[in-house]
Automatic annotation (TrEMBL):
Primary location group: membrane
Cofactors that this protein relies on: heme
Pfam families attached to this UniProt entry: Cytochrom_NNT
Modifications after synthesis and translation: Binds 4 heme groups per subunit.
Name of the protein: Cytochrome c-type protein
Localization per Swiss-Prot or TrEMBL: Cell membrane
Organism for this UniProt entry: Volucribacter amazonae
Membrane topology: Single-pass membrane protein
Length: 191
């Protein structure tokens, strides 16, 4: 009996190979579908709110990215998760460190979060600076801006930023979240 099994195992029939390949293909599709569904769930506002309800969600809900006259809403992942496939994966891997910090109690209270806010903000600003504010530019492009519809100061600053090759995060820190205590730091601020 064992000898017969090993003979079959070393020289499987075409049906066995076909069945194995078919099952592997189906398992791959099920795995990919489930994994992609889980990945997309981590991009929802609900997922982010589960941990951030007491710190950044209230301030985000007071921003123009949440409620505005045009009704266009940006959710957390629109700004914090790249839209390109490979960059999205890299960001998700890095974000697992942030989830781990919350689970292990490093930033699980408002007080702990506030104590770490500047370091977290600086990391996010550096990421956005390095990718030329790609998430911002997914919706806001200099070439699509109607400068005549902007306030004089905004028009002047946007034209200057375009000429100088600046990126959104250079000037718009604090656009959707309260700024951390930046005592002694000089950089571009708010809207």
């Amino acid at each position: 009996m064992i000898k017969r099994f090993w003979r079959w195992f070393r020289t499987p029939s075409r049906i066995a190979v076909g069945t194995l390949l078919s099952l592997a293909f189906i398992a791959g599709i099920v795995f990919w579908g489930g994994f992609n569904t889980a990945l997309e769930y981590t991009n929802t506002e609900q997922f982010c709110s589960d941990c951030h309800m007491n710190d950044v969600v209230p301030e985000y809900r007071m921003s123009s990215h949440y409620m505005n006259r045009s009704g266009v809403k940006a959710i957390c992942s629109d700004c914090h998760v790249p839209h390109e496939f490979v960059d999205k994966w890299k960001r998700k891997i890095i974000a697992s460190r942030e989830v781990y910090a919350h689970i292990t109690g490093k930033v699980d209270t408002k007080e702990k979060f506030e104590a770490a806010r500047l370091a977290m903000a600086e990391r996010e600003w550096a990421r956005m600076k390095a990718n030329d504010s790609a998430e911002c530019r997914h919706c806001h492009k200099f070439d699509s801006m109607d400068y005549t519809q902007q306030k004089t100061v905004a028009e002047k600053m946007h034209r200057l930023a375009q000429i100088e090759g600046k990126t959104c995060i250079d000037c718009h820190k604090g656009i959707a979240h309260q700024l951390p205590n930046m005592h002694g730091i000089q950089s571009g601020l708010t809207e």
